[in-house]
Amino acid sequence: MDLDSVECVSSCDGMDEDEPSHLHHQFAKLHGAAALNGATPAPGISPTTSINELLECPVCTNSMYPPIHQCHNGHTLCSSCKTKVQNRCPTCRQELGDIRCLALEKVAESLELPCKHSSLGCPGIFPYFSKHLHESQCNFRPYNCPYAGSECSVTGDIPFLVTHLRDDHKVDMHTGCTFNHRYVKSNPREVENATWMLTVFHCFGQYFCLHFEAFQLGMAPVYMAFLRFMGDETDARNYCYSLEVGANGRKLIWEGIPRSIRDGHRKVRESHDGLIIQRNMALFFSGSDRKELKLRVTGRIWKEQQSSESGVCIPNLCS
């Protein structure tokens, strides 16, 4: 449900001996793959298969972790996909039993591999079984699109996402560290679907996302505004922001630290980490007729800097 009208004024991501013979084919592939990691391949084995390909599940294409299953012909797949293929090998269609590929599990246990985000700058080398956890938290991993109005699956670095938000989502872009938004809604009682609005601000050489939306908090409809930082949490802590809404001699003020876009939009909203306005108060701020939402939200962003003389943090406001 879109807002009817928005005005903005800006003022400034080895086999055991007892292992079965049907592992020989898989183990031969391992020798070929080992050559690509600096090991000497077995005689007559051509190193044509990479370790990443060897440890990739043919069904979901994710890396496989124990228990790794295989059919009688040596084709492997991960345990989660084994239940999805109706007990048939996805490669040769032979019936699957309960065979563990112990050779592949042992090789995986001995591997140390670079992070998959190495091309983006991550220098780390990690044991295979801990690499996945690191990659899910890697500071070099791409950011998710912060747009909250749809399930956008686009990822990338910050410059790419800024261009994506502007060109694909038609998001308003503003320069400056202060802002003045006016939100108008002809029927403020309709909040069955989330009403969302996103504006991107550029200041201090960084980008910030200002969200405003309506949703049901329990049985009560509320409006919420909050700021997210387009970068990692560590950098987000260098900034503060304030939001203010009011009329008729009353005002509500929120002051906080912007959340990183590493935290999903829904996570921030459900934590109530922002300016929350109950509908009755929002209608009071809108005027006496209480039939139309007319909210003016003002705010500013600043960077905390430490004084070299006093050691006290003082706000650094953009000009």
In short:
The protein is an alpha+beta fold and 319 residues long. The chain contains nine helices and 19 strands. The strands form five sheets. Strands 1, 10, 14, 15, 18 and 19 form a six-stranded antiparallel sheet that branches. Strands 9, 11, 12, 13, 16 and 17 form a six-stranded mixed sheet that branches.
Descriptive report:
With 319 residues, the protein is α+β, with helices and mostly antiparallel strands. The protein folds into three domains: 90 residues, 2-Layer Sandwich (Herpes Virus-1), CATH 3.30.40.10; 29 residues, no CATH class; 176 residues, Apoptosis, Tumor Necrosis Factor Receptor Associated Protein 2, Chain A (Sandwich), CATH 2.60.210. It is built from nine helices and 19 strands. Belongs to the SINA (Seven in absentia) family. Keywords: Metal-binding, Transferase, Ubl conjugation pathway, Zinc, Zinc-finger. Pathway: Protein modification; protein ubiquitination.
Q: Which terms summarize this structure?
A:
319 residues; 6-stranded antiparallel sheet; alpha+beta; Apoptosis, Tumor Necrosis Factor Receptor Associated Protein 2, Chain A; transferase; Herpes Virus-1; zinc; ubiquitin protein ligase activity; 3 domains
Number of helices: 9
What structural category do the secondary elements indicate?
A: alpha+beta
**Low-confidence runs of at least 5 consecutive residues:** 9-48
Mean pLDDT: 79
Q: Do you know the CATH topology of the largest domain? A: Apoptosis, Tumor Necrosis Factor Receptor Associated Protein 2, Chain A
- Overall helicity: 10-25%
If you compute it from the alpha carbons, what radius of gyration comes out, rounded to the nearest whole angstrom? 27 Å
